[in-house]
Every structure is written in C-alpha cells, then in structure tokens.
Amino acid sequence: MRHLFGWACIFTMLPIFIICVFVAGKESQAIKGLSTILDEKIPIESVDLAQNSYVYDHEGRLISEITSNQQNRIYVKYENIPEIVKRAYLISEDQRFFDHIGFDAAGMFRAVLINAKSESVEQGGSTITQQLARNVYLNHEQSYNRKLSELLYSYQLEKSFTKEQIFEYYLNAIYFANGQYGIGTAADYYFNKQIHELHLAELIFISAVPNNPTQYDPVKNYKATKVRQERLLQTLYEFGAITAEERETATKFPIKLSIKKEVDIQPDYVTYVHHELKQLVAAKEGLKDHNQINTRVNNILSQGVIIYTALESERQNKLVQSINSYIQSDDIQGAAAVINHQSHQIVALAGGTNYNKFEFNRAFQAYRQPGSSIKPLLDYAPYIDVTGATTKSRINAGRFCSGGYCPKNYSGRNYGMVSLETALKYSYNTAAVRMLHEIGIEKGFSYLAPFNFAKISKQDYHLPAAIGGMMYGISPLELTNAYTTFGNNGIYYENHAIVKVTDQTGKTLYEWDENPIRVWKETTNKQMRSLLSAVVSSGTGKKAAMNKRYIGGKTGTSNDYHDLWFAGLTDQYTGVVWIGKDQPANIRSVYDRGSHLLIWKEMMK
Questions:
Q1: Of 450, 472, 494, which one is at a domain's C-terminal end?
Q2: 536 to each of 64, 323, 357, 418, 533, how far by Cα in Å?
Q3: Which of 41, 50, 55, 219 falls between 20 and 30 A from 280, CA-CA?
Q4: Which segments cross the bilayer (predicted)?
C-alpha cells in the first residue's frame, strides 16, 4: 500500500503545484513566486546534448569520429526527422504531448493504478518532456523523489522551449542500445544510412528500441525487436498514421542490419591533431592552465565541431608503410614528419612502428640528440649570415681544442682547409665547431630562437651543441619545422596540421594566424640550399637521392649510433626521419643499411 500512498501523494500535489505556479505571480512583490524560485534553482537556458565531432583530411575524407562522454550522437533537426517517426513516438509514448504543460495527470493516474496493483513502481506515466528531463538532467532511478524532480524540470523545459524544440531534443537524446543516442545515430549505426534514406519498416524497427534498449537490442535480440516493430506498425495503422497496405509491406520488408564501424584511421596523425587542438584553443582564448585547457577542449568537441586538417592520406600511408617495412626489430623505433613548406602545413606524421592512437608519439614527444642534423641551423647558416661566406669559402677542418673540448671528425682524421661544401657534405665536426666558435655561441643560438625548440635551454649553450651535443635534444617534428626555413628563402613560418575548426553550419571557430619571421638573409638561404643539395648528390645523404628538380638534406648521427637522422627538403616538401631505441643504445646495423635515408626517400616521393 505504501506505493499506492506515494503515488497518491504525487497525484494530489499536481493540482496544488499548478495552482501555486499561476497564483504566485499575483502575490506580494516582497514574496518570490514559485516560478521565480524555480528559475533560480533550476535555470534551463539550453539543452546541451553531446554530439560527435569529425576530423577530415585535406581532400575532405573522414579520418576520425570523436564521441563525447561515450555517447555516439549524430544530431538531427526537427524538420529533418521523418513525420512517421514523430507520429510513432507521439502515439506510443505521449499522445497528449502538444496539449499538456510537461506532465499528464491522466497518464500519471493510470500509472498509480498499475503500480498499486503490482505493489511496485513499474510505470511512471512519463511524458516526452519528463523523459527528456530524466535523460538530460536526472537519472533512471525508480523513486518518488526522482519523479517529483522530473515534474519540476519538465515544467521548466516547457517554459523555456517550444513543443517542437522539446520533441527534437527528445528524439536526439533517447538511447538506442550499443552506445547509440538519438534517432539519426541509430539510422547510421544499424543501417549505415542517413535517416531520410530508411524504409518505413527500418524507421519503425529502430523506433522500437528505446522503449527497452536491453530487451530490444537489434544486435542481441533481433527477434524481440522485430516483434515490437510489428506491434508499432499495427498501432500506427489503428491510429490512421499508415494504410493497411503500408503496414503489410513494412511488416514483410526484410530488415538487414549493416552495423557501421566507427571511422578512426591514421592514428599517428590524429593523435597529433588532438594535441594541436589544445594548443590552438589555448592560443586563441588565452588559456594557460592545463586542466582548464582540457576542460575547454572537451566542451568544444562535445558541441559537434568539424576539424579540417592538411593530412595527405596517401603520403601518410606510404610513410607508415615505410617505417614498418624498414624497421622490423622489436626494440628499434622510428618517427617522421612531412611538411608542405609552401602552405606551411603538416601533411604526414609517424609516431612509431605499429603505432596505436594516443600512445607515446615519438614524432612530437620524443626529444633526442640531433647529431650533425643541427649543423645547418646552428653552425652553417649563422656563419654564412654573419660572415658573408659562400659555399666555396674555406674553413679549417683540422684539429680544434677550446677549454679542454677537442672534438674529432668521424674518420679520426684532420683535413686542413676545405670548402664549406666539402665540410658539410662529408660532415666534418671540427669545421662545424670552429664556425660556432668564431661567430660566438650566443650568436649561433640566437638563430635557433625563432624555432621555439621546447627542450633547448642555456644549459646547451656550449661548443658540443655545434655537433648535436645537447642536454635533451629536439623532436623530429621540431627539426622538420626548422628545416622548412630553407624552403622559404630564410623566413620561418609556424606549421600546423589543423587548417580550421568549424561548427556544423560551416562557421569558422578557430584557425591559426601566420606570423612569419625572417631568420637569415635570402643570400644566406641560397648558399645553404646549394650546400644541402651537395650532401645528397655526392655526400653522406646519397641514398636519399631521387629524380626531383631540387633535393637537399643533412644526415645526423649521435654518439655511439644511438640516433640516426635525415632532414631534408624538395621544392615543396620538408621531411625528417629519426630512428633509434626508446632506451638509447647502439644501432650501427641500421646505420649501415641507411634505413633512415630510404624511409625519407619513400615518404618524399
């Protein structure tokens, strides 16, 4: 009897609640009306339903769907929802929806009788508005406290929105089993079609699910779902929503599920896109706190945004294939990045062999000793820029010592006076260190400042840095970014994967600004391009040579063959490859095969 008593209390309170709402407005100004109190305690300005966001490559192909709060949802506007779907829910769930104020006293009275008879809370008599309130603001607990809360939230929803808006929210909020929310999502997931493409039979089939998503799960309980579909078709016929012929045809129509798999490819690149999105939002909104940035980005993604990227999918596929093909040892890793230096966009990125999304991404998270690949940036370009030297200018590649630091050339030999071209294409260490020493360490490092290398600090301001001896080093993506300067006449542009972020209507929400910085003179850049070309044509980078109008680059090897690098560019693209072990160790065998050069060659074709 306590269930009957509880429901009787609720039912008795309804008229009192309604009277209070309307009478409160006429009370003294000194006393707040019930409606005002509800506005303060339960302010409802919008119904925020998490929507899917999408990531596209540069040709407009979908590469990743992003769901928020584990709710897969494709939002569908009211006018785009088929009328028969609306009729089905109105008839089966809330026939007086367009007449009541959020709750239906007659429906609740029927629930009182049924629950009293069963001695349990089996029916709630909930309207569509109440179901929306429960799905968005409350929970599915079967209690009278929750039921009363439903009434209050429903009243506020009816005050704030039109019936059509509430119905739209409802049809996008309800659960369709298997992590799918909303009628549009159900169409996409179960039939791999848009909702307007579905047959009447398919529309009513998925409409059968929300009544009891567990019992009517189309994947696990297909037969039960089909039985309920036929009941709904009969009900629609009885209410005159469909003809006898339509009911018969829909009943016999073969329902063939075509479960759609979530699109989530190119994990190396997509992982970086998520990282860059945080940078973009933080830069545009002036956010610095890590938790604040994460919260804001999650909120943006839940609004259903579209992220357009510069990804060249074919190049990305070739890069990943090459990394996995040329590096087959379990404990050896590789990473790479390719940038279109003409458009200033990151077009491909590899985070490691057999990479999985959101794993440690070596392309932008691994900082390693750059070896001789730093020489063009820290030694040669600054030296030429300061002294006016050319490729034919002479530099001493003989013995060098300063303050107890005495670097040696790879061969152990001293070469005396050689041209800058010879010194770079054979990577003479003593010549590079002598250049940095002559112009001054501070001056040399000033040329690296525009590149914003994250791990380079004052601790690295010493002569060993001239040949890559640094505390932490640099990442493959950082080195790629820096080398793009050689492709832009000595001007550095920040390079990005994200082209723009828009809302569902196409309105641009976020995009990067360009802030070009001149790093060295055009004349210096011309000399550097010639030097880098010589490395590939007749120096240490010969294995990277291919039929291109221009190709130049620089190899790099850290002490004891711990890190192998090749950084280079063509007329349009700049790319860097790194190979090494996560725990640095000798990989001389890989060096001998020239795998880093061969991977670079493949990804730059």
A1: 472
A2: 37, 21, 34, 18, 5
A3: 50
A4: 7-25
Decide if 470 contacts 367 (C-beta within 8 A): no
CB 582 within 8 A of CB 337: no
In angstroms, the Cα distances linking 128 to 92, 124, 132, 155, 373 are 10, 12, 6, 12, 65
Dump pLDDT digits (tens) for 256-265. 999 999 999 9
Going by their DSSP bridges, the two strands 180-181 and 306-309 should be labelled as: unpaired
Q: Is residue 287 part of a domain?
A: no
For residue 403, the SS3 value is coil
- Interval 432-482: pLDDT, tens: 999 999 999 999 999 999 999 999 999 999 999 999 999 999 999 999 999
Number of structural domains in the chain: 2
Across all residues in the chain, what is the average pLDDT? 91
Which spans in 373-492 are helix H? 375, 381-387, 420-425, 429-439, 441-446, 476-483
Amino acid in the structure at residue 419: S
In degrees rounded to 5, what are phi and psi of residue 454? Answer: -65, -35
Q: How far apart, in whole angstroms, are the C-alpha atoms of residue 548 and residue 529? A: 14
**Active-site annotation, residues:** 93, 372
φ and ψ at residue 385, rounded to 5 degrees = -65, -40
Please give the pLDDT value at position 42. Answer: 72
Tell me, what's the pLDDT at 351? 98
Q: Provide the percentage of residues in the chain whose pLDDT is more than 70.
A: 89
Q: Which residues contact 173 (CB under 8 A, 6 or more apart)?
A: 47, 49, 132, 135, 136, 181, 182
Token pair 């065998």 in the structure block, residue: 589
pLDDT tens digits along 475-509: 999 999 999 999 999 999 999 999 999 999 999 99
The amino acid occupying position 298 is N
Length of the chain: 605
Q: With CA atoms as reference, report the closest residue to 570 among 589, 551, 555.
A: 551
Q: How far apart are CA 181 and CA 169, in angstroms?
A: 11
**CATH number of the CATH domain containing 414:** 3.40.710.10
